[in-house]
Write a structure and sequence with these properties.
six-stranded antiparallel β-sheet; SH3 type barrels; alpha+beta
């Protein structure tokens, strides 16, 4: 009987502990939801009071050197439209200053699949001017002219055994990786191939007086 009593007591303690743990989890989840709601209300307040002061901007293209995001509105973390990969040249469509006192750029991002949500806002501070010193770092958007020899194989070590074909039209795309004097190139429609880097056409650097 004593053993049964002791066992029953242990079970009660375990149930009570489980109940306390469950209550603690619920409290933690409730606090998390309350914080998310407060954050959402704050962002909605920013939308309601949004003021966009458009201004002239010289650069028609900028370089994003690190992974970044574009947003539906010039509000940090409000609604993300799509990511921007590192070393991507973006086209600047407009510029504006908002209530956070930062300069935002309304840009178009190069896409190689479905052209959805490819225009949006990014803080100017997350971009740099495209110059002769950094243009060779660009991975996208690049071009290859019609007639350029390419190697349609995934493995670099298979280039010697892969007969080259020629591009039938001008192609734009992005460098996925480099190997010696070749790059692995991604183009629209999910087409990948190796091409010598000497055939790559980089964006034209703008000069201002």
């Amino acid at each position: 009987m004593r053993k049964l009593g002791a066992l029953f007591f242990i079970l009660i303690i375990a149930v009570l502990n489980t109940g306390c743990s469950h209550q603690s989890d619920l409290k933690s989840k409730l606090e998390s939801l309350e914080n998310e709601n407060a954050d959402l209300q704050s962002k909605l307040g920013q939308v309601d009071s949004l003021s966009i002061a458009y201004q002239d901007y010289k650069d028609k293209q900028r370089l994003v050197t690190k992974e970044a995001l574009i947003y539906a509105l010039p509000i940090q973390d409000y609604k993300i439209l799509r990511p921007i990969e590192a070393n991507t040249v973006i086209q600047v469509l407009d510029a504006a200053q908002c209530q956070d006192q930062r300069l935002w750029l309304y840009v178009a991002v190069p896409v190689y699949d479905s052209p959805v949500n490819y225009k949006g806002w990014i803080p100017e501070a997350e971009t740099v001017r495209l110059t002769e010193n950094n243009v060779k770092l660009v991975q996208g958007d690049l071009f290859i002219k019609e007639g350029t020899p390419i190697y349609e194989t995934e493995q670099y070590n298979q280039l010697e055994s892969t007969p080259p074909t020629k591009i039938s039209h001008d192609v734009r795309g992005r460098i996925e990786k480099r190997q010696d004097s070749y790059v692995y190139f991604m183009s629209p429609g999910g087409r990948y191939f190796w091409v010598e880097d000497k055939y790559l056409i980089f964006p034209v650097v703008e000069f201002f007086s």
